[in-house]
Write a structure and sequence with these properties.
The complex is a heterodimer of chains A (315) and B (435). With 315 residues, chain A is an alpha/beta fold. Chain A is built from 12 helices and 9 strands. Chain B starts with 7 loop residues before the first strand and ends with a strand. The mean pLDDT of chain B is 96. Classes of the chains: A alpha/beta (315), B alpha/beta (435). Chains A and B meet through helix 5 of A and helix 6 of B.
Chain lengths: 315, 435
């Protein structure tokens, strides 16, 4: 077995990862895609290991994907959905870490509404931690699955032009994708109204557009972001109707992109808000369902390399 | 450390620093009981009298005790974070002999009885002297004026809503106007609340990378600009706390040039740190206002040097572990500062921005003059409130060794230069380490 294919204890974000590390994860994911499509898809790489999915936010898609990934690898997977009420009872993140340490688990998958919360937890636990989304900070496995989807369709990432459209301000998916695509040599454009772009975002190495037709011109990939109503504290946009008119993706706007441009969405989508419903279902253009499939493979790869480090280092 | 003031004590072989008179030279100082009797280069040139206790300062600096014009106490109400006693011990360990506390206790200092409670409790401790600011508005709610006249009579040195901005323009106008009736000072936390709401750090590239909601620098400048209009309208005396931005400095600079009765302070984090201190979600560096960019930090240093910023205060804000060991957005803001006030301020001297006397002035005579306190200078007949320090002595900030009950220092682990050796309040040595 290769030593230290992925020399990190945790996967907390894409920022800071090098192209070789990302490629390692994508290559391994590719193999799991094929495995998952075969009849004999159960492997035992993680037999006897325990994974806890600790979710402080509601999530069906990501949690299920991690659960399936863990089970396919033969691990015992436990889901802990933490409701707002038990947080209100006063158990802090640090208390939770202490509790989990006592359970001797191998991997903790965490989603939390606060940026930095997963890192805080990772500093206090003995196991490997995967960030399944923290606030508006990062969602590394989403960026990896997006990259895998693109790479399988286009054959490569470098040199592609990718437009990320919508609520970048509140989006961890956008941040992780910006870091990953830049690291892998793609060109990233952001398209959004100014109120949905974070401060000095151009310093992240992206081209910023406020007009869909300019932003989508000749792009290879269009990534639509969810308009996160639940995060909208304040008036960022005047109305859904106005938003769709200017920033929603439909066939008309898509015309300026390359003829073979692909449409992606991290889900769950708001049909008719950020994305025209027919377009979302158009198998010629939309790879949204493929993204879900890639998600399981990517998470299997991440689980494998992190647990490998655990046993490789100290056993 | 005796409780009663000793008889005659001679501090010999000292480098006397008195910013108020410009004195900086070797000499001696004599106290008798609670008062300074005499001092100067020629004192005891013909030998020590027999009846004095001599303290050899070995060439260390003897200066007026520091006057810290912005300290958050947590008593009454949050004694698990800090008590008047622990704050007093932290103060004297930091060379602070007079501190002015904010009214943001529970209950708030908004009536005469609470002012008197704080003063009485502090006197019992016999450590640093404590003077309160009182609330500008009842319960710090920003709506109705507190009893400013009576509170001033009871000893409140100024009026402020603490860590909250007085945000309603009409309320601020009346507070300034009414306070001017009695000639007392209004102290503002200059931050437009609607721009700071939900914000956890400085707005910019770093907040974007960290995915944290930011507070733009304009939040400070906007509140200051509005307030300058209200100062011009009312003629009230106004003091802006903890300036953190270049834009904020520019507003005050311009207001002073126009002759408005305006002063301001800053705190060591704003000239010694920048926003990078919160990288890795370090909640000990979460402050209010937030740490700003490097350009802002440099503007604060320049404003201290050219006098736009009048004073340096610690903005001491104790928070316990449970308030800080949280995801960044949920953590409380603030840092303890009493025990690092002098050494971090001395960086301005070591880095060549200010003379030693100028640094001490910002920490003693300037705040005392601004607040009308009889403190902050070496003066025959004045209270013997003194600090003896070695400006060159290196040490490392270790909050575990702080006297403050809370350990939330943004300077945790920082190498420092300049150490307090002895602190004297009313002639009594209340803190001393081996020289």
């Amino acid at each position: 077995m290769t030593q230290n294919r992925f020399p990190h204890r945790h996967l907390l974000g894409i920022e800071g990862l090098g192209p070789q590390e990302i490629t390692t994860l994508l290559d391994l994911s590719d193999r799991y895609v094929e495995k998952n499509r075969s009849a004999d898809r159960k492997v035992n790489a993680l037999r006897g290991k325990t994974i806890i999915n600790l979710f402080y936010e509601n999530s069906t898609r990501t949690r299920t994907s991690f659960e399936l990934a863990g089970k396919r690898l033969g691990a015992d997977v436990i889901n802990m959905q933490v409701s707002a009420s038990s947080v209100a009872k006063g158990e802090t993140l640090i208390d939770t870490a202490m509790t989990l340490n006592a359970m001797h688990i191998e991997v903790l998958v965490v989603r939390h509404p606060d940026s930095g919360a997963v890192k805080l937890l990772s500093e206090k636990v003995n196991c490997a931690v995967i960030n399944a989304g923290d606030g508006a900070h990062e969602h590394p496995t989403q960026a990896l699955l997006d990259a895998l989807t693109i790479r399988r369709r286009k054959g490569h990432l470098d040199g592609l032009t990718v437009a990320i459209c919508g609520d970048v301000l509140h989006s961890r998916v956008a941040r992780s994708n910006i870091h990953l695509l830049n690291t892998m040599g793609a060109r990233v454009r952001l398209v959004a109204p100014r109120t949905l772009l974070p401060s000095q975002v151009d310093r992240l190495g992206v081209e910023v557009h406020y007009d869909m037709l300019a932003g989508l011109k000749d792009v290879d990939i269009v990534m639509m972001l969810r308009v996160q109503n639940e995060r909208m504290k304040g008036n960022f946009i005047p109305s859904i109707r106005e938003y769709f008119h200017f920033f929603g993706l439909d066939y008309e706007k898509l015309k300026v992109a390359k003829p073979d441009a692909l449409i992606m969405h991290p889900g769950p989508m708001n049909r008719g808000v950020e994305l025209d419903s027919d377009l979302a279902d158009d198998v010629e253009r939309s790879v949204i369902r493929e993204q879900v499939e890639m998600g399981v493979a990517v998470r299997m790869a991440c689980l494998e390399v992190l647990t490998e480090n655990l046993s490789g280092g100290n056993a | 450390m005796s409780v009663r003031a000793p008889g005659r004590v001679a501090y010999v072989n000292a480098r006397l620093l008195d910013p108020a008179s410009g004195l900086d030279g070797m000499g001696a100082l004599l106290t008798d009981g609670e008062k300074i009797v005499d001092f100067g280069p020629a004192l005891f040139s013909e030998g020590l009298p027999a009846d004095v206790t001599a303290i050899d300062c070995s060439g260390a600096c003897l200066a007026p005790g520091l006057v810290d014009m912005r300290v958050q106490l947590r008593e009454p109400g949050e004694e698990h974070k800090e008590t008047l006693r622990s704050a007093g011990e932290a103060a004297v360990a930091g060379g602070v002999t007079s501190m002015v506390c904010l009214p943001n206790t529970h209950p708030a200092i908004d009536d005469v009885a609470t002012v008197e409670f704080v003063a009485r409790r502090a006197r019992q401790n016999g450590l640093a002297k404590v003077y309160p600011y009182a609330a500008a508005t009842k319960r710090l709610a920003g709506a109705e004026l507190a009893e400013i006249g009576m509170l001033a009579e009871a000893g409140a040195l100024g009026f402020t809503d603490g860590t909250r901005a007085i945000h309603d323009a009409q309320v601020m106008r009346r507070a300034l106007s009414y306070a001017a009736t009695f000639g007392v000072l209004i102290i503002q936390h200059p931050e437009e609340p609607s721009l700071a709401e939900n914000g956890a750090m400085n707005e910019g590239e770093l907040s974007t990378r960290l995915g944290l909601a930011g507070i733009p620098t304009a939040a400070e400048a906007i509140m200051l600009e509005r307030d300058m209009r209200l100062v011009a309208l009312t003629g009230g005396r106004y003091h802006a706390a903890h300036l953190s931005t270049a834009d904020g400095v520019a507003v005050i600079r311009e207001a002073k040039a126009r002759g408005l009765p305006v002063t301001c302070d800053t705190a060591p984090p704003y000239f010694a740190l920048n926003e990078l201190a919160v990288s890795e979600y370090r909640t000990f560096a979460k402050l209010s206002p937030p740490l700003r960019s490097e350009a802002d930090r440099q503007a604060i240093v320049a404003a201290i040097r050219d006098g736009v910023i009048d004073t340096i205060a610690s903005d001491h804000a104790p928070q316990d572990q449970d308030s800080k060991r949280l995801p960044f957005a949920q953590a409380e803001a603030g840092g303890v500062g009493l025990e690092t006030l002098l050494p971090v301020s001395l960086e301005l001297y070591h880095n060549g921005h200010l003379s030693l006397l100028q640094v001490i002035e910002k920490l003693t005579a300037a705040p005392a003059r601004l607040l009308g306190l009889a403190a902050g200078r070496l003066q025959r007949g004045a209270a013997a409130d003194l600090v003896l320090f070695d400006p060159g002595r290196p040490w490392r900030a270790d909050p575990d060794l702080f006297r403050s009950k809370s350990k939330n220092s943004p300077f945790d682990g920082r190498p420092l230069q300049g150490k307090v050796l002895r602190t004297v309040v009313d002639g009594r040595t209340v803190f001393a380490i081996e020289a």
